Amino acid sequence: MTSLKIAAVSLNTTPLDFSGNLKSILESLKQEETKDCDFVLFPELCISGYGCEDAFYKESVWRRSWNALEEILPYTKDKTVLVGLPVFQSSFLYNCMVVLDREKIVCIIPKTNLANTGIHYEKRWFHSKESLVAESYIPPQKYFNAGSPVPFGHFLLEKKGVLTGVEICEDSWTSNRPSQVYAEQGLDILFSPGASHFALGKNKIRYRIFQETSRQHRSLTVFTNLCGNESGRAIFEGGSFFCENGNLVEEGPRLFFSDYQITTYTTSLSELRSARAKEFRSSSPKEKLQIPVLRLESERSSSFILDMRTKSEKTNQNQSSANSLFDDFTRAVSLGLYDYLRKSKTKGFTLSLSGGADSAACALLVTSMKEIAKKELGDSIFNRLGVEESKLLVTLYQKTENNSELTETIAKVLTEELGNPHHQISIDSSVEEAVGLIQSQIGRKLTWETDDLALQNIQARVRSPLIWLLANLNGHLLLSTGNRSEASVGYTTMDGDSSGSLCPISGVSKEFILRWIDDIQSGNNPYISFKESLKLLRQTKPTAELRPLETKQEDEKDLMPYPILQEMERLSVFVGLEEEECFFRMKQSHPELDADLLKKQIERFTKLFRTSQWKRERLPPSFHLDEYGLDPKTSYRYPILSGDF
């Protein structure tokens, strides 16, 4: 009986941090879990970091990535290690996995299908080696191992009579998969190293892909992934797993806060090969591409210790009871905030707290980040980071005559419940001074009847330098509080409430934020308990509180109902429908809506979306959290100047 023990290592990397990334790789190879493994799989581009962007063009990035292999080689005496890095070959740059065995470089396997939609932009930097035909790679003289040719291309690796192959991330998500060819040559184990970003619900799709691959090919599929907020916007979720014969048989933690996590699985393959023999039939005679087989001669014993847990027990022990979208959202944003804190070496976060849902959500997420980090990394984690835990979050309520006593109370009660330092000031005199200076120059008085928008915006803009001053004094990052719904229609004041170093919630809609808060109040969130302040908050209508109180300003009156806005946004941006088709879709799903009113709301959304692109270009960095986003750098590119639809 042939048996193999395999480790899938998930890493939290940082672009261009060669020493830090290498340290995590080497530390994981020193652990007991990997010492007796036959194969150790690391994620895509784990040496350089996935998010190097145009720094990938620098020769120093390729050189330092390649030189890192020299330090990994001593750990491959009795195991095969697969690591990801960029490789420059024949005037082209490739996204590759390098196979190391017995202190030698066995081969280099390039990515075939490059991710180039949504937040991914790989075709800007990398060449796609569409042909599976192998060639040789000769490292330049300035690299170690100079002059020794290394096989470059697509291979099957044979070890202990077992055939393994590699697909790099997107290669496993397309119809043109290398594994289709591998399977016809007897593939036993498919390795899929990834840099697969987090999106709400995406992990379920990922499971289905690899479960079906393992069922179709009667093989073992091994997936591993980056984890954490690597380069500022994308959050990777970890979650290494093994699928065998259509079943998820082992799974590692997702959205963890540590530097790495190791997940292992031992397999005999006998059952898989038996199933393959029963079901695989030869096709009609034709010339087929033959993938070269590289034999890995290992001197280590084939003995192993069987894990006596059943497959069902392995699956169930890693199933979190909180697999909901809300739980994933909480953990993902918390992890993103934690990585921002430690990678930017800042002292915490400052937040302008308005008494509304968005700023409350940001405060709650910083608090959940603190609790999860302490639980996973120890109570002293913030001391080790040089952060004073009691000042991790500092908030400021900036009151004007247009703010209600209720929002003031909500902000005060929330900070008491969270236990963070909170300040409150009145900015009426600053607003009056700014308005007076302009009135003295234009020779007239500004009124709500003639200057409504300008008078609203000046309040938000006066708040900005004050909250920035407080953030600077604290040595903090300033959090901006806009959501995706506001970004889509430009419902934000530039250089006012849009100001910030980071906007943690602009990857989700206002509707989602409100449902998430309701989920907390229902007692379903394992990290945040019921808050009396949120009960008060949900009794109010969302409002900017920038007009006089007697006008009873509400966001949905200024815009449209948030559920309608969200549906219109999704149909227009994500699905890609034009106005007329959006109307027919929404009229079918909402027959109760007046047709003329719906048309006006769709026309209003279209106009606001088109004219607000310049605002989206200037919003703070944000996290990608949903199936689509509006960040023009990573999600949705749209012209600043455009005509009507």
TrEMBL record:
Its EC number is 6.3.5.1. Residues 4-269 form the CN hydrolase domain. The keyword NAD applies. GO terms for molecular function: ATP binding; glutaminase activity; NAD+ synthase (glutamine-hydrolyzing) activity; NAD+ synthase activity. Keywords: ATP-binding, Ligase, NAD, Nucleotide-binding. The keyword ATP-binding applies. Deamido-NAD(+) binds at residues 457, 486, 615. GO terms for biological process: NAD+ biosynthetic process. Pathway: Cofactor biosynthesis; NAD(+) biosynthesis; NAD(+) from deamido-NAD(+) (L-Gln route): step 1/1. PANTHER family: GLUTAMINE-DEPENDENT NAD(+) SYNTHETASE, NH 3 /GLUTAMINE-DEPENDENT NAD + SYNTHETASE. In the C-terminal section; belongs to the NAD synthetase family. Belongs to the NAD synthetase family. This is Glutamine-dependent NAD(+) synthetase. The gene is nadE.
